[in-house]
Amino acid sequence: MNSYESRLNHLLSLSGKINERIDYLLLKSNKYSFRRLWIFLAGLIITIVVINFNSAAGLIVGFISLLAFSVTVHYHNRLLHSIKKFSFFKKLQDENIARMKVDWSGIPENVKYITPDESSTFKDLDLTGKKSLHRLLDTSVSIEGSSMLAELISQFSPDVKLISRNQKIVRELSLKKRFRDKLILKARLISLKPLNGSDILNWLKKAEHSTVPDFLIPVSFILIFTFVTLFILYNLGIMGNIWFAVFLMYLIFYGKYQKQVSSVFEESSLLSDQIRKFSVLIQLIEKFEFNESRNTSEFLEILKAKNEGASDELKKLDRLISLVRLRENPIYRIIFNLILPFDFIVCKKLLTLISDIEHKLPDWLEKFYELECLISLANFSYLNPDYNFPEFETVNENTFEIKNCGHPLLIRSKKICNDFTFKNSGTILITGSNMSGKSTFLKTVGINHCLANAGAPVNADQFRTSVFNLFTCIKVNDSVSDGISYFYAEVKRLKELIDEINNSKGRKIFFLIDEIFKGTNNKERLTGSREFIKYLSKQNCAGFISTHDLELVNLSQENFNVTNFHFREEIINNEMIFDYKIHAGPCPTTNALKIMEIAGLPV
């Protein structure tokens, strides 16, 4: 059994055990439901019977019955919470199993769905979209974390220092399954609605312009103390009925400033779940021990400050907003504000705390989003233990070597992996029959480059590469609305490659071009392709171009730094058999006519 199968079996076993636990708890919950009903009915009947004989004894029996019922409800609610927690935990394991199997029906939609542009590397390599690398990786609990992950896997101009740092943290976090699972579970238990840090920051910006006069609290205390004292003296018969006039003064004073206080409270109350979620998650991060994970500890240092760190400040904020929510009950609001200036005190403390953290919170949120990205990559690493971290060659700019490299979005049973090594820089011309695997090979190279640039492991036994800027031209589409034909869309895209080369500032461009100029006629396609490849051979770039034009293979003999490779097939018993393996040299076969014949078309 290989490491992938072992990991998959472990998760399947874990999911099964959790399901057994849920079934047990559900049976127990059903018993509690009957128990609650019988305790309530028995207590009610016994109380009614006893109270007819002795009212005092009946009240005692009623109190005991109510206490027994309350205790039962308390333990039943705890049991229901456990069922909810285990259900979420099982769902999380099932999602991971679906990610391992690349079963899109079981992989949750992205927290932030990003539609790829019509002509872009995002679409060429399926980086974002419904069945994309972004969706396969994304375990984010925040909208911004999901968006940042999409940006991270689209680093087409890689930073080697950042990649190295990310690799180290991803390696460490891949061993912290308990931490990763707890973070996601806590977020989902608080609210299934994703964290929206932008809403929190917008609230901060609004709140920082709000002020409460300093005299509100002392004046309110004086008025409250005065009318309460006068009320007591009035009831003792010492003074006349003047307390009510002071009470009216307090009501007028309270009402005058209530509008600006309420505006602060309304915004705060709407964000209570968001702030509580962020607070709880930061507390988890702060409490979790990363003793053997030096790089992760350094990365999270800003969130784990000992004195007045993010956790402490956010707990205070969460408590204050809980008080704001509490005063939404009109009865509590009246009681609280009669005995002390509750609204003014809470508002003042809230605005003071906002003033203290308004410059810190954006940094905390940004660090949290980045952590989410790295957790997504770490989870990907954990789920694919046979994937390996790439090596970047910083001295030789012509290095590209892959061994047993496959496409991470393909189901493993259908995946064919390939080896390839650049012998020298230049253009690798790939010829081959229809459906032989040319496009898939280009996408495989490209998507693994994106994983490598993000700091994630790649679907390969070995992946060594120089530091390249990545450019692709694979899924070109025409545009009816813009009046752009397929051919012109491709021309525009390839012009972007020339612009990239001219603006690369010395960084080598690594290009992937599928079926060059296939949108025009044979004669002009051949001429255009030859001239374009000749141009590329003189530039600071290297990469792969696939084509059906077998005449282009002669460029390798004209000393234009072109090397030929191909994909092939065999026809056995009128059936085409593809090995989907890349081979050196030009393609020796074609299959278009045979495909037409097999399909029953006249040839």
Descriptive keywords:
58% helix, 603 residues, Rossmann fold, alpha/beta, 3 domains, six-stranded mixed sheet, single chain, elongated, four-stranded mixed sheet
Describe it.
This protein has 603 residues and is an alpha/beta fold. It has three domains: 101 residues; 198 residues, no CATH class; 208 residues, 3-Layer(aba) Sandwich (Rossmann fold), CATH 3.40.50.300. The strands form three sheets. The protein has a six-stranded mixed beta sheet with strand order 6-7-8-4-9-12, with helices on both faces. A four-stranded mixed beta sheet has the order 1-5-2-3, with helices on one face. A two-stranded antiparallel ribbon has the order 10-11. Helix 1 runs antiparallel to helix 2, helix 2 packs across helix 7 and helix 6 packs across helix 16. The longest helix has 51 residues. The relative contact order is 0.09. The mean pLDDT is 87.
- List unreliable stretches of 5+ residues: none
Q: How many distinct domains?
A: 3
Assign the CATH architecture of the largest domain: 3-Layer(aba) Sandwich
Instruction: Determine the strand fraction and express it as a percent band.
Output: 5-15%
CATH superfamily of the largest domain: P-loop containing nucleotide triphosphate hydrolases
Shape: elongated
CATH topology of the largest domain: Rossmann fold
